[in-house]
């Protein structure tokens, strides 16, 4: 079923002839069919909505331009961060000044540069992940209150480009000759790139969906079947392909692994820097045709004031009393203008009742995202720890950090299958695979990936000549690698399973953040959704002591159990939201203007 918002109409007595006004108000036939016109649709009735198959509409070409922006930005991001683990952890290979492995050692050799070890590598990579998912708040606030999404993305793409130039400099032979200098430049580049990439990330997700402005309507296919062109299904499709762009970009790390091993890190970082130039070019190319949402003023300030006015009378020293008051049905009433007598509305109330409703329902819906840090804990293992696992296995000429690219490759393969086959088949059979159910499935599959990883590490410890004493660093007397006989491609299982879990959970979270946010707050709500990855990284910081190979079995196993338990709690906590899907999708969809001087989106 579609999740497109509809408004229930009161039944009216049948008249011999239905007037236009009757049709707008809605009426039922003698058989009980509801033929009221869905508000905002192009002649679609409630009966049509309930009985016809829902399909996705065509995407405008400006949406594909935004896809190019995301593809180039993600290629640049993953093409650099996916090789951070070896760059920081492993020392320079024999006879190398750039991190490249000499031809004679490439069968089992591993590229490296700074030689700081697993724990420092993990700490820096975790900080990078934390920072790049905190800065979306900066981009969201600037876009929603000052510049708008388009200008924000354009300005911060320049910031991001500067960061990548610094990263290339950090990996030059002159810098690597002084590891402390190289480390300082690396951290500086991480900070600058994090500011740029985070600000882009908060805005590009809602911007792509805003390019679609179609309405609910009936269409007759060449086969003769009449179907519903559903904006809700279209948005779902948009985010599937948007996520595909992310993972096409992630595949840039495939070449980066080989380039780093064969030619050194400065070359490996220079290539994505050049590709990033596509971002401003794609933005400028579609400037005249983009649907551009202008900044909406002090939305965040107004939101804080609404929450403060509602919470003020309910606050108590007794926390249980405060919680009960917050859950009360009339909790938001003191923040509504209609709560006060005419002429006695507080001067600081500059909003209407509907905006209070938007704040209320958005906060309720966004509670969904608070469970995601535990999902991202599982995902974080494919970022580096599983690369370390692979380093202790027989490579046969494959760089150990190459295998992680199976994650985006598997997502790229599975997305068209889900978009064109699985999801349409479920809708055709009347199976409503709702967002909460999809996210729960993502938690379950992520836990399964961690079980696979734990079992694999057990076998590596058994078969490695060094057993559980850092198999990734096991060497022979001459200093060459001495790995476990297990083939490195066995580690592909967790990467593929995590990819499947992302289709269920991560893509759905993007869709959920867009459809549940008022138009005026989409960048900030998207930033809040992505902030859960930063919280996951903060949890990882607390686990630095156990992020060592000797404890990988217990680490992976505990993450599996955590994902299953948290996912189950998530499902039983929020399954009611699936039944309220239509209502929640209606948040902030009205055409009214909530604040003085507010403008609608323009093209």
From TrEMBL:
InterPro entries: MFS_trans_sf (IPR036259), POT_fam (IPR000109), PTR2_symporter_CS (IPR018456). GO terms for cellular component: plasma membrane. Coiled coil: none annotated. One of its GO terms (molecular function) is dipeptide transmembrane transporter activity. Pfam families: PTR2. The chain crosses the membrane at residues 130-147, 154-176, 182-200, 238-260, 266-286, 363-382, 402-418, 439-460, 488-512, 524-546, 552-574. The keyword Chaperone does not apply. Its main location: membrane. It is found in: Membrane. The keyword Transmembrane applies. It is a multi-pass membrane protein. Residues 21-37 have a biased composition (Basic and acidic residues). Keywords: Membrane, Transmembrane, Transmembrane helix, Transport. Residues 17-40 are annotated as: Disordered. Belongs to the major facilitator superfamily. Proton-dependent oligopeptide transporter (POT/PTR) (TC 2.A.17) family. PANTHER family: OLIGOPEPTIDE TRANSPORTER-RELATED. This is Peptide/h+ symporter protein. It comes from Laccaria bicolor (strain S238N-H82 / ATCC MYA-4686) (Bicoloured deceiver).
């Amino acid at each position: 079923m579609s999740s497109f918002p509809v408004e229930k109409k009161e039944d009216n007595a049948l008249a011999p002839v239905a007037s236009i006004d009757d049709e707008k108000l809605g009426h039922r036939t003698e058989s009980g069919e509801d033929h009221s016109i869905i508000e905002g649709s192009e002649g679609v009735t409630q009966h049509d909505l309930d009985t016809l198959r829902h399909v996705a509409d065509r995407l405008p070409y400006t949406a594909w331009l935004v896809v190019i922006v995301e593809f180039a930005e993600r290629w640049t991001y993953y093409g650099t961060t996916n090789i951070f683990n070896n760059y920081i952890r492993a020392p320079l290979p024999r006879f190398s000044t750039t991190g490249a492995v000499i031809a004679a050692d490439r069968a089992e050799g591993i590229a490296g540069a700074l030689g700081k070890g697993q724990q420092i590598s993990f700490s820096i990579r975790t900080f990078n992940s934390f920072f790049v998912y905190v800065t979306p708040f900066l981009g969201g606030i600037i876009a929603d209150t000052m510049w708008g999404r388009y200008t924000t993305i354009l300005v911060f793409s320049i910031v991001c480009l500067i960061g990548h130039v610094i990263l290339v400099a950090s990996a030059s032979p002159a810098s690597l000759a002084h590891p402390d200098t190289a480390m300082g430049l690396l951290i500086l580049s991480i900070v600058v790139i994090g500011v740029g990439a985070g600000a882009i990330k908060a805005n590009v997700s809602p911007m792509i969906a805003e390019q679609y402005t179609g309405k609910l309507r009936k269409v007759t296919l060449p086969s003769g079947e009449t179907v519903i062109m559903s904006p809700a299904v279209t948005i779902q499709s948009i985010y599937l392909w948007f996520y595909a762009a992310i993972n096409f970009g992630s595949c840039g790390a495939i070449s980066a692994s080989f380039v780093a091993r064969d030619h050194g890190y400065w070359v490996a970082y220079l290539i994505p820097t050049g590709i990033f130039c596509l971002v401003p070019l794609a933005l400028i190319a579609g400037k005249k045709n983009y649907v551009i949402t202008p900044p909406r003023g002090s939305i965040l300030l107004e939101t804080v004031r609404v929450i403060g006015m509602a919470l003020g009378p309910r606050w108590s020293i007794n926390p249980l009393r405060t919680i009960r008051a917050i859950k009360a049905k009339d909790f938001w009433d003191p923040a509504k203008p209609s709560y006060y007598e005419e002429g006695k509305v507080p001067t600081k109330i500059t909003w209407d009742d509907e905006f209070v409703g938007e704040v209320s329902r958005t906060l309720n819906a966004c509670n969904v995202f608070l469970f995601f840090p535990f999902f991202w804990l599982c995902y974080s293992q494919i970022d580096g720890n599983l690369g370390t696992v692979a380093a202790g296995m027989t490579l046969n000429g494959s760089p150990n950090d190459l295998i992680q690219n199976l994650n985006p490759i598997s997502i790229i393969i599975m997305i068209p299958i889900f978009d064109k086959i699985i999801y349409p088949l479920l809708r055709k059979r009347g199976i409503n695979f709702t967002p909460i159910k999809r996210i729960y499935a993502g938690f379950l599959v992520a836990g399964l990936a961690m079980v696979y990883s734990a079992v694999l590490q057990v076998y590596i410890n058994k078969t490695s000549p060094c057993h559980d004493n850092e198999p990734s660093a096991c060497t022979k007397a001459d200093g060459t690698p001495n790995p476990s006989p297990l083939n490195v491609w066995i580690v592909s299982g967790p990467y593929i399973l995590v990819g499947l879990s992302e289709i269920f959970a991560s893509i759905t979270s993007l869709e959920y953040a867009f459809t549940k946010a008022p138009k005026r707050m989409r960048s900030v709500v998207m930033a809040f959704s992505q902030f859960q990855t930063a919280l996951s990284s903060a949890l990882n910081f607390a686990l630095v002591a156990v992020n060592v190979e000797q404890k990988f079995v217990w680490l992976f196993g505990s993450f599996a159990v955590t994902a299953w338990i948290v996912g189950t709690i998530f499902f039983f906590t929020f399954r009611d939201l699936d039944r309220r899907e239509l209502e929640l999708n209606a948040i902030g969809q009205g055409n009214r203007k909530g604040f003085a001087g507010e403008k609608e989106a323009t093209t």
